[in-house]
Model the fold of this input.
Amino acid sequence: MSEIALPKIDNSILNRKSEIVKKLLKLTNIENVLSEADELRPYETDALSVYTQTPLAVVLPENTEEVSEILKYCHSENIKVVPRGAGTGLSGGALPLQDAILLGLGKFNKILEIDYENKCVVTQPGVTNLGITHAVQHKGFYYAPDPSSQLACSIGGNVAENSGGVHSLKYGTTTNNILGVQMVMMDGTISRFGGKTFDQEGYDLMGLICGSEGLLGVVTEVTVKILKKPEVVRAALIGFPSIKEGGDAASEIISSGIVPAGMEIMDKALIEATDNFSKAGYPRDAELLLIVELDGTDSEVNELIKKVEAICKKNNCSSLKLSNSEKERLSFWAGRKAAFPACGAMAPDYYCMDGSIPRGKLAEALLEIKKLSEKYELPVANCFHAGDGNLHPLIMFDGNDKEQLRKTEEFGSEILKTCVRLGGVITGEHGVGIEKRELMCEMFNDNDIQQQLSIKKSLDEKNLLNPGKVYPILRKCAEEGRVHVHKNKDKFPDLPRF
Amino acid sequence: MSTKIKINSQIFQDSNNVYYPKDETEVSDLIRELYKQDSPTEIIGNNSKSFIGNKTQSANTTSLSKISGIIDYRPEELYIKVKACTPINEIEQVLSENSQELAFEPIDFGYIKDGKSNKGTIAGYLSCNYAGSRRFKVGSVRDHVLGFKGVNGKGDIIKSGGTVVKNVTGYDLSKLIAGSFGTLVALTEITLKVLPKKDSSKTIIVYPNNFEKIYDLFNKLSSSSSEISGAVFVPEQSNDKDFSSKRNTVFKFNDLKSNISFVAFRVEGDKISIEEKISNLKKELELNNSDISTLDVYQSEPFWKKINNLEVFEKTIHNLIRMVIPPANGSKLCKYLENKHNYFIDWCGSLFWIEVNSKKEEKIKDLKKMANDFGGYLTVIKTSSGYDYGEPIFTVDKVRLMISEKVKQSFDPKRILNPGKMYRGV
Done:
């Protein structure tokens, strides 16, 4: 992956760097402003590490008032600002700009209040997703959305991306699990949407902010809903002799009225790769592997398992194993969670795609991808969040071979276009960022995009907050859009990606 | 109306000068023309909920009621795509044939309006975003909208979302449209997530004797792994005989003592798991030695319908308030309301329906202050005939109002769609 178009650099800002840094030093503590080349380097990219840019300066404010003062100053001086959480995003949403300040929320790392009576946690945005669950799990509670990077990704970033996860089928994504946010607008105005209640009346501004990829405001506080852990959780590991039979079983489980806590699919290439990598004990003879997780009370789970078993048998499953302990359940997931690193071990590079399709089209999509794989002569491994039709095909290639790189890009684009053709969308959970920006016109026409840009303009008139992200700037549907990992050098190699 | 502007002879207009565009293109043509002529319009569906919100100041009325019908229902994909003004009854009927439902449990506002069932259209319902008793478990209306199409205040046809549940492509405008009272977009098409209907349900009735006990029950219910899907408190208000008698009539069930205060909670699922959950909950709530009643499925279903129809406030001529607060402050509010205003509590302690039998707006002002102090909000859903709107019927702070004005501007720069329906200037 090569060049990407970014907003035109404002040289007058570059020339004023020392003056700007001086002013920032007045707005926050001295150690919170980074401006030397070696200090800036760690912030040059997020988890879409193929693209790098050096920011003008990095500022790490410590409280909402500082964020407000910094934004107010940048607004009055026409300085662009790129907000950043933990930098684990896969679509380049936090890619810095040379003439922009990178506003890191890393120092907002405290949980402010745990309120069991109202079933919520008030937290600063830099707290990790898993950090919230860790804070309440001793009382049997948890925070439901579980993106694979939950160990490192911040809740503020989750709000920006409307992050999902394996369990979003039953429990929803971030937008369904937050109650309120405090947000600072580009002009420094501090606002609060929602609180500890459901459904604020008036415009659902919290719903608008969630998933807006840092374009509309900087979130400085989040109130999340916490849930009681289910009494029983069990998983089933089911092998199928063909893609069609496995895909059909997955969609029949949903259409029969079962809502599993999670339902994942892996194809043969990935079954072998992950089993080699994590020794998960997967059925290697299967063409397709289905992991179904069910939760609830004891009898509820047993009842559901019986139904799942019956559907899978009807669809000719070749193997079926149920978890009989928590240890066994986690071992079922071990392979699935190792999907990305396992691909990294098989090829010098891989691209991870992220599209969504109607569940009933799973088998069709898999067969289509298989055909494309043959056409482009590039191996592909597939893992899907089958329950909600979210696909993550991983295309393997050698980035040093320019021809292979070109073919991979074409292949990836064709996959996303296939998703749209099958009635789906270009991104299910990774966000648009810079990565899929130019593919927006595959889904939206001019009116649709214009309306979204009008909202942006109404809340950030000068287009200073995270410019160049989400909306096409080339105004042509360029064929881009993948996560590129070279020699398994993901920026966060230790994070499971699924 | 003499000031009426002739818009487009192709669009049907009835004798009351109400426009009835028949499809998305006609809605677009009409609004584009109104935009050019700076002439605002009220947007209505089938008028079931038009009493909610401020009266709009507009020269025109546009009814979207002809934009009706199911476009695409995919039970196996758990979605239904409908034209915006499809009646909710029609949608529920089709879903029911496939053992599916709208899980947010639409409230039937017809009962408080004039005593007759009228759930209205899905566009109207989405525009209000008022979910029923299952809210705290399954989310609100906004959580069940996958996408929409509609016409903004300039006459442009716009869309957002799609038919899949996992979708982060662009701003999530479906959320913004929910609860916007038709002030941003004239809706033409809505895609909803649907869910399987539960096999059965049972409702347990408990008769607690003080507010702390009630909230202790609510707290334990919402902290349990044995999920419930509804929890209400219906108080006895001994000083109001009319209310007491209404209450006793509405909640007249064989197995319910309707003449004393009660908490009711619902358990849904297959029959075995219902029994298991009830047994767990009895232990957790320490109910084994208490006086409780059980409503079987034949009583449980109508009971929750009556709750969601607000039947206890049927044809009310008073102000009806919907207040939502964090449940931890609920018992304080109960003490304030006791024998002062008629009310009942839904959403496991969070949603209060309060009838304010007074033309004096101070009473509503007091309640609004309490809602704010408790970290919640209130809306005057139905106003008494003497209400002069001196006290705004919605709750909004200055910053949110300022942002709302900006958002309105981005969809509807000339304030053509339902101006003033929610706030002045929006």
Summary: Chain A has four domains: 11-104, 111-228, 232-337, 341-459+469-486. The CA atoms of residues 25 and 33 of chain A lie 6 Å apart. Chain A touches chain B through 91 residues (CB under 8 Å). Residues 111-228 of chain A form a domain with the Uridine Diphospho-n-acetylenolpyruvylglucosamine Reductase; domain 3 fold (CATH 3.30.465.10).
